[in-house]
Amino acid sequence: MGQSLYDYLRMKVHPLIPTTQWSQIVVKGEHQRDPSVVNISSIEKNDKPFNWQRPTASVVDLKTLQLHCFPGVDYVQHYAAITATYLSLEGGQQDIVQYTLPSQHECEEPLLNSNLKEMGAVDIVVIGYVHGLDRWTRGPWEGSNSNNLFAWKKTTSRRGYRIAFLGCRICFWGDIGGNLVRALQRLNAAKCVLYVGKLGSLRAEHVPNHRLATGSQSVVRNELVTWTNPLEAYLEHSPSITYGVHCSLGSVLDETKDWLRAAEKQYDFVDPEIGHMAKASLEGGTQFGYLHIISDNLARKYIRDLSNERLPDVLQDRKRLLSEIQDILGRFFDCWLPR
């Protein structure tokens, strides 16, 4: 991220971190938002309906701070890295940051016990940036109590199949995305999961917020995962589409110059979730596809990146790409049949 790194970190760290010279900061996988127990971050982006809940904090004693992340191995490690790197850039000691990884049961339990079961059985689930898909998501959402993890809007395709647009208030970072797919299989009998989001490109010619990425391969923890992209037949007339091989990386802080030199010979795109979702889909017999806005470029420095993505021109460019995504989804919905 180069010079944008500090701005990115400053947007992510919990506000209690710089208030005290802590001797120990412990990051753990636990979804805890009871205001009588934890301090909820004052910089959460709660001006948007989804993906706004962030790790919370509790003061253990005068010198110990505990950070509570939604349980996921990648997310806990990522947030620990964010905290340690921020402290280092501020002249502090990064070795005071420790973390405890959650078990697979601890990762799945809050999803399985959430309000997701109330959505009922569906055929196709669209996740990610669903509130930007306004052809289908205008008006009130079901399950919209802000204490719930999820809210959704449902419709029916021309062929009579049930489609759900599922919004998530937490960030389903990394392996949390795979666990979400498993929960959708178990609780909602989902047959197809489509992920609309954003990712980084390793190709210098990809200007951020001007291209869409898709594909059918991702490397997850050194394992190549290959699947059939159900969207492929509906992409022919989409001018912004770019195909490529994806890499699932647990943290943007792992995107070092050394990593990039090796990765750009093998991969085209990078984000934390796609490969985990694809792997879970294969394991559970669910179709999976992704359509992502290329929002950042690791191979070449552009003016727009993850540190300034809420600027008006960025939002306008993304609105155009979201219109193209909706064209693709509309064609897909009209023709989709279960396997």
List key phrases describing it:
339 residues, alpha/beta, eleven-stranded mixed beta sheet, four-stranded mixed beta sheet, 8 helices, 15 strands, 28% helix, globular
Topology:
Blueprint: H1 5-12, E1 24-29, E2 56-61, E3 64-69, H2 73-89, E4 97-100, H3 104-112, E5 124-128, H4 134-137, E6 150-156, E7 162-168, H5 175-188, E8 192-201, E9 212-214, E10 217-220, E11 223-226, E12 241-243, E13 246-248, H6 257-263, E14 269-271, H7 274-284, E15 287-297, H8 312-335
Parallel strand pairs: 1-3, 1-4, 5-7, 5-8, 8-15, 9-12, 10-13, 13-14
Antiparallel strand pairs: 2-3, 6-7, 8-14, 9-15, 10-11
Helix pairs in contact: 1-2, 3-5, 5-7
What would you call the shape?
globular
What fraction of the residues are assigned to beta strands by DSSP?
A: 15-25%
Main sheet overview: 11 strands, mixed
Question: Element order, helices and strands?
Answer: HEEEHEHEHEEHEEEEEEHEHEH
DSSP helix fraction: 25-40%
Give the N-terminus to C-terminus distance in angstroms. 42 Å
User: Which regions have little confidence, pLDDT < 50, spanning 5+ residues?
Assistant: none
β-strand number: 15
Count the DSSP helices. Answer: 8
pLDDT average, as an integer? 95
* Rg computed from alpha carbons, rounded to a whole number of angstroms: 20 Å
Structural class: alpha/beta
